[in-house]
Write a structure and sequence with these properties.
This protein is an alpha/beta fold. The protein is about 40% helix and about 15% strand. It contains 14 helices and 13 strands. It has a seven-stranded parallel beta sheet with strand order 3-2-1-4-5-6-7, with helices on both faces. The longest helix has 17 residues.
């Protein structure tokens, strides 16, 4: 089959793409070349997908986002549909596999008009706005969590779990050779500017007590990576235990997680599922404007499982990051997963099996 893959959470989607390609299917990728409007650095999605040798087609879809370039995003909505139509007519796929998100919506809806079968995967605890619409035209809906079943037509649903990179289960050498605990800050694949700013303010105090791993994103509009390097020069020897990168790629992320004693992060579905699978304690800072408050719901789930605390973004911006980190670390031993989850490595096989049932 010719299969188009599109949507958010590229790490999971890429695992499925590779598994499908190994089965002899032709796989094409429709995605973001840049993470946001005005950014001039290629996205982690574009870099990783093209490194795997998959044909990549850029979609410049728009979305309804109140707080950032509303009109520019709004005007790009029809562009996303036009590009989707042109690319799908060129590829002529037998199947579209959506991983949700605003970019997947025009691809799926245009695909339905062109009578191309569609399957979709919902990563979050709740249903995103795009996936609610995509689910109406999808033949199969794959879910990460059984609790999401209520949001979709039952006859279409298959609970598969979320595909995770086997690299995250690395067990080997740690990144630091000292007695300090290690703290991993991450804002997701795009980074989180608001989190980065707060880290920069308290970095000297943090380094007195912790090794710091910091994934700050590559966004050229904010240039947080450049600011981190200026700070390193100013602090000199004090930053010997500070590892900062724009993005940790597949071959690096396992050692990062293995080295970290706990994590401070956004609460995207993929990150939360990785933390759960690794039983890694975390302070979660949900994006306040995420669709249907999905990041807040993800964070609540991990908190209720005994593995996390939530730091609201308004408290982050009030300067409460340092005290939250110190209090969390003081009680680190109490954060344990209250119940095990199904093996995440089985998800890829199950998804591929369900897709191949649609060959006819």
């Amino acid at each position: 089959m010719k299969i188009v893959i599109t949507g958010g959470h590229h790490n999971s989607a890429l695992l499925v793409a590779e598994a499908l390609r190994e089965k002899g299917h032709e796989v094409y990728w429709l995605g973001h070349k840049y993470s946001m409007l005005g950014d001039k650095k290629p996205s982690a999605e574009y870099l990783e997908v093209t490194q795997k040798g998959l044909p990549f087609f850029e979609i410049k879809a728009g979305k309804l986002q109140k707080n950032f370039h509303f009109w520019l995003n709004f005007l790009r909505i029809p562009l996303g549909f036009e590009q989707s139509y042109r690319i799908l007519k060129e590829i002529k796929p037998d199947l579209i596999f959506s991983f949700g998100g605003y970019l997947a919506l025009p691809v799926a809806l245009v695909g339905n008009i062109l009578r191309i079968p569609i399957v979709t995967h919902e990563q979050t605890v709740v249903s995103g706005l795009a996936n609610k619409q995509i689910a109406k035209v999808a033949k199969k809906i794959f879910l990460t969590f059984p609790s999401s079943v209520k949001y979709f037509p039952g006859e279409k649903v298959v609970v598969t779990g979320l595909p995770l990179r086997p690299e995250i289960f690395y067990r080997g050498k740690k990144l630091f050779n000292n007695k300090k605990r290690t703290l991993y800050f991450t804002g997701g694949k795009q980074g989180a500017h608001v989190l980065n700013l707060e880290i920069f303010k308290i970095l000297p105090q943090l380094l007195e007590k912790f090794n710091i791993i910091h994934q700050c994103g590559s966004n050229s509009l904010f240039n947080d990576f450049g600011q981190a390097n200026i700070l390193r020069e100013e602090l000199g020897e004090k930053t010997k235990d500070y590892l900062v990168k724009e993005y940790f790629f597949e071959k690096e992320i396992g050692q990062v997680f293995y080295s970290a004693d706990f994590v401070v992060s956004r609460a995207g579905a993929h990150t939360v599922y990785e933390l759960m699978s690794l039983e890694k304690p975390a302070i979660l800072i949900p994006i306040p404007w995420s669709s249907n408050h999905e990041q807040e719901e993800n964070a609540k789930m991990l908190r209720d499982l005994g593995l996390a605390e939530i730091l609201p973004q308004e408290d982050l911006e009030k300067g409460k990051l340092l005290e939250t980190v110190l209090e969390f670390e003081k009680n680190l031993e109490k954060y344990k997963l209250s119940k095990p989850i199904t093996s995440p490595l089985a998800a890829i096989e199950k998804i591929v099996e369900e897709i191949e049932k649609l060959k006819g």
